[in-house]
Every structure is written in structure tokens, then in C-alpha cells.
Specification:
The complex is a heterodimer of chains A (518) and B (535). With 518 residues, chain A is mostly helical. Classes of the chains: A mainly alpha (518), B mainly alpha (535).
């Protein structure tokens, strides 16, 4: 039993339950304010717990499961409440706690309102429930609990998009939930197949067995089912089509969490479940995963280039969503290489993408609030939106995030993608080297295209003639609450870029352990 | 009565190795000692039914409200009577000695084993919730009270008797005791809709019964016995020329049960019958009627027709896939703005859910022992029973003032916070998505049964269906939290007594919702049923 990890999950759950009770007062405005404050308090406490967890973590043994709890929950199904963190999950838990806290802080000042938007109390309830699901995904060590945690996030995210979103929000929300549910239902079938053949759902026991006791056919079928399920979530090309719509419609905090945490649940599952539990099946499927990843990288950047082109009516949020498809392609490529280098790179890129894209969505959301639109053509007018001239700090932050996203050395985006490509250059034994080198070349092409579209975006949004007629006369400069909630992300992007060993030192032993090497 | 019948049938089992001699050496052995504790649950319900019918004759008009309470008390007592049966080895009664292949309970017509107890719990519990739900409907719609409660109790008696019966004759009688009062219950509203619904229900149901009786006749002719265990043995050793007869008999028998479960293609009566019936009766049919058919189907297939396991396993798998697909597509096509659309949606969804319930039964055809996957069906049926009756309860509560189209639920959260939350919870349980954790695990055990049996294709079909079903459940859930629009309820808001729910409805919703929440926290309570063999 470990109190910290349990409290980490229970606290937001109780916080969410409390929003059902009429404790926030009768007056709607007061109740809303109190509820949002409550949101900040709870997520702040969760962040403190996560930091405490990281501080108490034995950094000399990141491969060992720490802070474990293992209690029987449903004996009939052999489901155990088995929780624990290692070097792979710890950074993701801290990232989740950080992003949710920043989002809570941000939404205290800037919650979408207007006709038909439900009360903030409902928002807080859903938001905290979402946090439970996200944290649980990274903390559980039982396949069925993992599935449960995977499903918990769906309903809150659905309502966040459908009720607090903008534009074609209802169809986007439906698409999001139906796609992901189909994926996770197929994933469940894979889990059940493993459980049926291996006789346990415990991830640690299964990982220790490392696929022994499962026939090759079983492993391939199970790996395929799980891969499809997780690829929808990640999302891997060609199963990504829910993502751009969801991002375009979602409110800012929804987009941040969707890109920053929810997508990671897919790639985390690949590392945690697929690699150690069904290694044979994974290595059979890895070349295909690598191919889809490489296509995704190029496809995502080409789509972004098309959206960034003048006259294409490209939506900025949509563009960043497509860029996520490309970035997650790097993560998938790193995992597909099945080498410690590649998987470490994938996990690093995971965290980096969470920080950078979170920041990008915050900034773009703020731009959308100020201009009332995220349409690139409307924003930039004839010469460009001239954010450098009209709101220099906002423009600088956007440029910083864009440059980090394109993988400038010294910032977080660089290491992960470099290591992922390095992994693909020298893939694990049994994988076709020429194929993976081809993927690496494609990925390299993708980095060039990524740089191209992000620079175009910077040019069209940040530069230009400040005097030209703009959709809004005054663009407010960076507000204090925005600065407070965004600075940690920018600082961590810089830190992870300058000191990658901080993360790699944690993940490397754990990854070697998962791959069966150490 | 049943004992006499089965005893009389015993000597006819010619063609068997052991034939009871007609000249009984010891006449005292024909007098059976009946285990009253074992048969208490259905018996109490039956006695309560008669008591209600008789009391109704003598009770002055103003006290007739008490009939409903008497019914509820009777059902609660019957539920309590299940308790002494839970421990120890299964109790059996109405046994005939010397039935061929009589190992322990094979010659008994009534066995209170775990399977029987679980389905009796479902039948009696479902009837109790339906009775609570009915209390205000009977008053509001001026239904004849004595008749209503009597019919409800009689039907519940049949549904409780059915899972414990272990010979084909008792099965048919129990099924008819469960069905016949249901026709009358559907017709009780005495308007055009109700009459049409009842007639449709009656004609198709009676046809199914006739077909089933023919099938049972064939099976009896081929196997020489009516006891389920003995039928299995008889079918295995049936002479070659009787094989086609036996197979035809098995198919026809299954058709009859498939009708009661509302499996496709015997489902067409469901939407019309549910909309025509009083709402609590529709809820009752969707849970208790289905449970009765399902337990009968399980008994007939896994026990009696065991030798044909692979054949009916495949047939049930196809039936399950068709049922869930047709049911969910039907629900998907349901328009939300028409009258009764909420009830019709629940009707179609119950057809889809019947498909899920059939999956473990199909898996039982492939499993080595045959009985293990049944626990998944039982567990899922219990979960489904609670949340579906809860959903019907909310529809009844909303339908009192607004209509029963799905659009009438728009903005319910703003008007009735807890009712809306309860319905959202029930719908998510039906969809199998957290926070409806118990619905999720219910689906997991069903999936597990399919995967364990190697029915991968069926599991994939079901996965797609779960996604399809989520769409309409979610659209409905989203309606609850949508902005209220033109507020159809504001007209009635002036009358404060109208705003309060009747106590019986509140009790129903509170009961079902709290059971669903408790199960979500501690799924083991219900999933232990799925843990091992039920027989």
C-alpha cells in the first residue's frame, strides 16, 4: 500500500464527487467562482502529491516498480488494484498533474461562457474526473484497470468538447468518442485474449514472463488488437481523422489536455503493454507500425503545409492538430524500432510534445479568444497578423513554441525526434534494416517539412505590417494569468532541451527492463 | 400437481435401460416429501397473488391502495425466502426415483441450485421494482387494481418457477404462467394502442408456444424422457432413424425460447408491445420476461441439448450477432421527436442487449464443460435488470408531466437534477462506459466468455455494436444536459404538488440508482456469479 499514489487518484475523484453536492452556494455567479477555485485547489494538491511522489522516487532504481499497491478488487475477474510507478510512468504522471493544474489555473479566469454553456460546477466535475482517468492510466498495472482508466476519460472529454467547445462541436465530440471507443473495445479483446491464454491480467507478471507461454499466433493477434486500439488514441495515420475535428472544436483547456495527455495514453500503452507482454507479436508487427509512423510524419507535415498556405482557410488549431499527427509519428517510429535508443527517444518525444503542444494550444487559444477566430487567412490579412508589433510577448511565446516544436537543438523537441530516428537507423535484431532506414529518411524529410510550415505560421502570425486593417483593433498583450499558467511549460521546454539526461536517466533503465535486456 | 405429472410420465420412458415397473412394490414411495423451503420463493409469490385477488373482492374502494403494498410485501418476502437456499448444496424436490441415468438431482423437477437462485433473484427483484414503479401508474391511469396486482404476481411466479424447473413439461408450464398474465397486463390500459399491442404480443407468443410444444413432443419421442438430464442422455443414444426427429425437435424448442428472449427474427413485437403497455409493464417485460426466456433457453441448451452443443452453439452465436445488430440499428434509426420515442428506444435497446445476453450462451456451446460461461449471462442479466428498470423508472417519472419522447428530456438536468443524473448513470451503464463502471465490467465478462470460447468474430461484432449503441445512449444523455429550450415543463411548474415525485417512484429510482452505484464500487458483489460454474 502506498498512500501517495492512492491519494493521487482518490483526491480528484472525491473532488469531482463534491461538485455534485450543493456546497457552492445558490447564487450561480458565486457558485461558479467557488467551483473554479476548488478546481485549482484540488489539482494543485494533486500536483504537490505528484511532486512528492517524484521526490520520494528512488532515482537509483528507476526500473523497479515503486510506490506499489496490490489489493484484490474483483476476484471473479482476477482484477487487482495494482498500482505503481517506474521511470516510464513517473514523468507522465508529473506532466499530467502539471498540465491539469495549469489548465485549472487558466480556466479560473478564462472559461468559455455564453448561451447554453453549463455551469462551471459541471465543468469542474468533468475536469476532475478526466484527471482521475488520465492519472490512473499511467499508474495502474492491471490490464483491465488500464482499460477502465482508458474509458474513464471518454465521457468527460466528450462533454468538454460538446458543451464548452465552438464550431461544429457536437459532430466532433461524437466522432472523438466513437472512434476511441471502437479502438479501446478492440484493445479490450486483445487484453482478454492475453488474459485467457496467460491466466492473469497483471502487467508485471505478464512482463516478467515476457511472452513465454503465449504462442506466436496468440501474440500476433493480441498485439494487432491492442495496437489498433492504441493507434486510434495515439493517433497513428490512418486512424487519426478524429483528431483534427476534436481539436478544432475543443475549448483551449480541452485541446491542451487532449494533445498533452490523452494522446500519450496511446503511446504509453504501446510501451507498457505491447513491448514487454507480447514481444514476438510486436516484432512481427513493428515494420508495419514503422511504415505507418513514417507515412504519418510526412502526411501530418504535408497537411500542415497545405493549411498554412495563404488562401487555404486553414484553422490554426487544426494545423497544430495535424502537426501532432506528425510528432506522434516520431514517437511511434521510435517504439517500432524496438531498441532502447528508439523507445527512450519515443518517451522523451512524448513528454516534449506534451509540453510544447500544450503551450502551442494555450497560445493559439488565446489568439482565438482575442480575434474571435483561428482562421489563418483572416488573422494574417494581406501581410501578416503582426503579433510582434501588436502584442510582442504573445508573439514571442508563439515563436518560441513553434521553434521548439520544429525541433531546434537546445529545446525539448530536438532530443526525442533525434533519438527516435537514431533508433530507426539501427533497429533491433530481426527487423529489416533497409525498411527502417527508409522510414528514417522519410522522417528526416518530415522534419524539414515541419520546419517549413512552422516557420510559415510564425511568419504569417507574428510578422507583418502592424498598421494594416485587422479584424480587431486592439490585441491585448499577455495577461498575468496567462503568463503564470504558460511560463512553467516554456521553462520546462528549455530545461528538457538543455538537460535531457534528467528524463533519459529515468526512462533508460526502465525501458531496458521492459525490452527484456536488463 | 407437478409431482403427480412427472411421476405419471416416468413409466412411459420406454426405450431406456431401466424401466419402472408398473406394479409398485412399495406404494409409500410414490408419496413424496416436498421440500417446502426449496419451493418457497415461487410459492410465496403465488400465494400472494391469490391473496391479492381474494382481498380485492372484499376490500372497500378507499383501501384498495393497500393491494399494491401487499404485492410489494409478498415479493419482498419471496426474495427473503431465497436467503436460506444460498448456502450448502443445491436442494431439490419433486424427484422421481429411477429415472434413467439418475445421478443426484437428475430425476428432480425442481432444483434450487445457484443458477436457479440467481435468476429467481432477477425475476422476483425485477418484479418488486416493477411493482414499486406501478404504484402510481395504477392510480393515475385508473387501471383495475386487483386484476393488475394479481396478474403481476402470477407472472412473477412463473418467471421464478422457470429457472428452477428441470423437466420440459414444468418449463413450458412455467413459461406460460409467466406469459399469459403478461398479455393481460399489456392490454389493461384499455385503449386502442394497448389492445393492439396485446393482440400482437398474444398472437406471436402463442404461435411460439405452439411451435415449442411441437418441438418438445418430438424431443420426448426421440429421447424418451422429459427430465433435462435424461433428455441429454436419450438424445445421445437415440436410434439413427430418430435423429432427424430429435434435431427438428431441438430446433423448434429453441425457436420458442428465442421468441421469449425477443431474439431476431422473433423481435418484431417488442417496440409496439412496449409502447402500448403501461410503462411499468414494459419495464417488467424487458427485464423479467427476458430473464424467464433466457433461463429457459440456457437450461434447454446447456443441459437438455448438450449432445448438439456445437450446432446450437453456432446457431446461438449467429442469433446473438443478428439480434444485437438489428436491435442497435433499430434504436439508431429511432427518431427522437416522435411520441413514445423514449420507450421505443428502450425497446430497441433491449433487443440489442438481448443479443449481448446470448453471447455467453453461444460460448457455452464451445466451452468444454458447457456451464461456465452461463455465469456471464447471469451477471450481465442482473446488471441489465437493475439499470434498465431504473431507466424505465426515470421515463415514467418524466412521462407524468412531459411526454415520453426523447426530446422531452431536453434540459432535464436544469429541472430535476437528481433524476437527470440517475438517468445519465443508467444510460451510461447500459452503454458500458465509466462512470457506469458496472456496465463496463458487465460487458467485459460477456466479452471474456466469447474470447475464452474462441468466438473471436462474435466478440468483434459485439465490439462494433457496443460502439453503435453508445451513439444513441450518448445522444440521449447529451439531451439531458442540453439547455432547456422552450421549457415544456414551465406550464406545470405552478403546481408545487406536481413537481414532487410520488414516494413509490422516488423509492424505485433511489433503489435502482444506489444498487447501481454500489455495484460500480464493488463489482465483485454481482460478478462473483460469473466466477465459476452455476450448476
Amino acid at each position: 500500500m502506498n498512500a501517495v499514489l492512492i491519494a493521487l487518484l482518490l483526491l480528484p475523484l472525491l473532488g469531482a464527487a463534491l461538485t455534485l453536492a450543493p456546497v457552492f452556494g445558490a447564487d450561480r455567479a458565486v457558485a461558479d467562482r467557488r467551483a473554479l477555485r476548488w478546481n485549482t485547489v484540488v489539482t494543485g494538491a494533486v500536483l504537490l502529491l505528484a511532486v512528492a511522489l517524484a521526490a520520494g522516487f528512488d532515482h537509483d532504481e528507476p526500473a523497479r516498480m515503486q510506490a506499489t499497491t496490490d489489493v484484490s478488487w474483483i476476484p471473479a475477474l482476477h482484477v487487482r488494484l495494482h498500482l505503481g510507478v517506474d521511470g516510464v510512468s513517473l514523468p507522465l504522471i508529473v506532466l499530467t498533474a502539471l498540465l491539469t493544474f495549469l489548465c485549472a489555473l487558466y480556466s479560473e479566469k478564462r472559461l468559455p461562457d455564453g448561451d447554453g454553456v453549463p455551469s462551471a460546477q459541471a465543468f469542474v466535475g468533468l475536469f476532475l474526473l478526466l484527471e482521475v482517468g488520465m492519472l490512473a492510466t499511467f499508474a495502474v498495472l492491471d490490464l483491465l484497470l488500464f482499460f477502465l482508466a482508458f474509458e474513464i476519460v471518454l465521457i468527460p472529454m466528450y462533454f468538454l468538447i460538446a458543451r464548452w467547445g465552438s464550431g461544429a462541436k457536437a459532430p466532433a465530440a461524437n466522432r472523438f468518442i466513437l472512434y476511441t471507443l471502437l479502438g479501446s473495445a478492440v484493445m479490450l479483446l486483445g487484453f482478454l485474449l492475453i488474459g485467457s491464454k496467460a491466466g492473469t491480467f497483471d502487467m508485471q507478471a505478464l512482463a516478467a514472463a515476457h511472452g513465454s507461454g503465449l504462442s506466436h499466433t496468440t501474440q500476433v493477434i493480441a498485439a494487432l488488437a491492442i495496437l489498433v486500439g492504441l493507434a486510434v488514441k495515439a493517433p497513428a495515420w490512418p486512424l487519426h481523422s478524429w483528431l483534427p475535428d476534436a481539436h478544432t472544436a475543443a475549448p483551449t483547456v480541452g485541446s491542451v489536455l487532449l494533445a498533452g495527455v490523452l494522446l500519450k495514453m496511446g503511446t504509453y500503452g504501446l510501451v507498457r503493454v505491447l513491448l514487454p507482454i507480447v514481444p514476438d507479436g510486436t516484432s512481427t508487427l513493428a515494420p508495419y507500425l514503422g511504415a505507418f509512423a513514417a507515412v504519418g510524419i510526412v502526411y501530418g507535415s504535408l497537411a500542415c503545409l497545405a493549411l498554412a498556405r495563404p488562401g487555404s482557410k486553414g484553422d490554426l488549431k487544426r494545423l497544430i492538430a495535424y502537426s501532432s499527427v506528425g510528432h506522434m509519428g516520431f514517437v511511434l517510429l521510435g517504439i517500432a524500432s524496438l531498441t532502447p535508443v528508439g523507445v527512450n527517444g519515443a518517451l522523451f518525444a512524448n513528454i516534449a510534445h506534451g509540453l510544447i503542444t500544450g503551450l502551442l494550444f494555450f497560445v493559439v487559444g488565446a489568439i482565438k479568444d482575442r480575434y474571435g477566430t483561428a482562421d489563418l487567412d483572416t488573422l494574417s490579412g494581406a501581410t501578416g497578423a503582426a503579433l510582434y508589433g501588436r502584442a510582442p510577448r504573445l508573439g514571442a511565446l508563439l515563436a518560441f513554441a513553434a521553434v521548439a516544436s520544429l525541433g531546434l537543438p537546445g529545446l525539448a523537441g530536438f532530443w526525442g525526434e533525434l533519438l527516435a530516428m537514431f533508433g530507426a537507423f539501427d533497429p533491433a535484431e530481426g527487423l529489416s534494416r533497409p525498411a527502417f532506414v527508409t522510414y528514417m529518411v522519410l522522417a528526416g524529410l518530415g522534419t524539414l517539412l515541419t520546419a517549413a510550415y512552422l516557420l510559415i505560421v510564425v511568419k504569417r502570425v507574428c510578422m507583418g505590417d502592424p498598421e494594416q486593417p485587422a479584424p480587431v483593433a486592439e490585441v491585448a498583450e499577455l495577461r498575468p494569468y496567462e503568463a503564470v499558467s504558460w511560463t512553467p511549460l516554456a521553462a520546462l521546454t528549455l530545461l528538457a532541451g538543455l538537460w535531457p539526461a534528467l528524463l533519459l536517466g529515468l526512462s533508460n533503465p526502465a525501458v531496458k527492463h521492459l525490452l527484456g535486456g536488463g | 400437481m407437478l409431482a403427480a405429472q412427472t411421476a405419471a410420465l416416468g413409466p412411459h420412458s420406454t426405450g431406456q435401460h431401466t424401466v419402472t415397473s408398473l406394479a409398485v412394490a412399495n406404494p409409500g414411495s410414490l408419496i413424496q416429501s416436498v421440500d417446502w423451503v426449496a419451493i418457497a420463493p415461487p410459492l410465496i409469490a403465488a400465494v400472494a397473488a391469490l391473496a391479492v385477488l381474494v382481498t380485492d373482492l372484499f376490500l372497500p374502494e378507499r383501501y384498495k391502495k393497500w393491494l399494491g403494498r401487499l404485492t410489494a410485501a409478498g415479493l419482498a418476502l419471496a426474495l427473503i425466502a431465497l436467503l436460506p437456499l444460498t448456502g450448502g448444496s443445491p436442494r431439490a424436490t419433486f424427484c422421481v426415483q429411477n429415472v434413467a441415468g439418475a445421478t443426484d438431482n437428475a430425476g428432480c423437477s425442481y432444483v434450487a441450485d445457484h443458477f436457479a437462485l440467481v435468476f429467481q433473484l432477477l425475476a422476483l427483484g425485477g418484479a418488486l421494482i416493477a411493482a414499486l414503479l406501478s404504484a402510481h401508474t395504477v392510480e393515475d391511469e385508473k387501471l383495475p387494481r386487483g386484476e393488475y396486482w394479481f396478474l403481476l404476481l402470477s407472472s412473477a411466479t412463473g418467471a421464478a418457477l422457470l429457472p428452477a424447473s428441470r423437466d420440459l413439461a414444468t418449463l413450458v408450464i412455467a413459461l406460460e404462467v409467466a406469459s399469459l398474465p403478461a398479455f393481460a397486463l399489456v392490454a389493461l390500459r384499455r385503449d386502442g394502442r394497448g389492445a393492439e399491442a396485446a393482440l400482437k404480443f398474444f398472437v406471436s407468443s402463442v404461435t411460439a408456444t405452439a411451435v415449442m410444444l411441437l418441438g418438445i413432443g418430438f424431443v420426448y419421442a426421440a429421447s424418451g424422457s422429459l427430465h433435462l438430464g435424461a433428455v441429454a442422455q436419450g438424445l445421445e443414444h437415440a436410434p439413427g432413424q430418430l435423429k432427424p426427429l430429435a434435431e427438428a425437435g431441438a430446433v423448434l424448442t429453441l425457436v420458442g425460447f428465442a421468441f421469449k428472449v425477443a431474439a431476431v427474427p422473433f423481435h418484431f413485437w417488442v417496440p409496439d408491445t412496449y409502447t402500448g403497455a403501461p410503462l411499468p409493464v414494459a419495464g417488467y417485460l424487458s427485464v423479467v420476461g427476458k430473464a424467464a426466456g433466457l433461463s429457459g433457453l440456457a437450461l434447454a441448451t446447456t443441459v437438455a441439448f448438450r449432445p448438439y452443443a456445437h450446432t446450437w452453439g453456432l446457431a446461438l452465436a449467429v442469433l446473438a450477432a443478428l439480434t444485437m445488430t438489428v436491435g442497435n440499428v433499430g434504436a439508431l434509426r429511432q427518431r427522437f421527436d416522435t411520441r413514445y420515442s423514449a420507450v421505443r428506444l428502450l425497446a430497441w435497446s433491449s433487443v440489442g442487449q438481448a443479443g449481448y445476453l446470448l453471447v455467453p450462451l453461444a460460448a457455452a456451446g464451445y466451452a468444454p464443460t458447457g456451464a461456465d460461461p452461463l455465469g456471464a449471462t447471469a451477471a450481465y442479466a442482473l446488471i441489465y435488470g437493475v439499470v434498465n428498470l431504473g431507466a424505465f423508472g426515470v421515463v415514467a417519472a418524466v412521462g407524468r408531466r412531459a411526454g415520453t419522447s426523447v426530446d422531452d428530456f431536453r434540459g432535464l438536468f436544469a429541472r430535476r437534477r437528481w433524476t437527470a443524473l440517475a438517468l445519465a448513470f443508467f444510460l451510461l451503464c447500459l452503454a458500458g462506459l465509466p462512470p457506469g463502471v458496472i456496465g463496463l465490467f458487465g460487458k467485459v465478462v460477456v466479452f471474456r466468455a466469447a474470447v475464452d470460447a474462441g468466438l473471436g468474430w462474435l466478440a468483434v461484432v459485439m465490439a462494433v455494436n457496443v460502439v453503435v449503441a453508445l451513439y444513441y445512449y450518448l445522444l440521449w444523455t447529451a439531451r439531458l444536459f442540453a439547455p432547456a429550450g422552450d421549457e415544456p415543463a414551465s406550464a406545470g411548474a405552478g403546481a408545487p404538488d406536481e413537481r414532487r415525485l410520488p414516494a413509490s417512484l422516488t423509492a424505485t429510482l433511489g433503489l435502482t440508482a444506489s444498487v447501481a452505484v454500489v455495484l460500480s464500487v464493488a463489482p465483485q458483489l454481482v460478478l462473483q456469479v460469473a466466477g465459476g460454474s452455476l450448476f
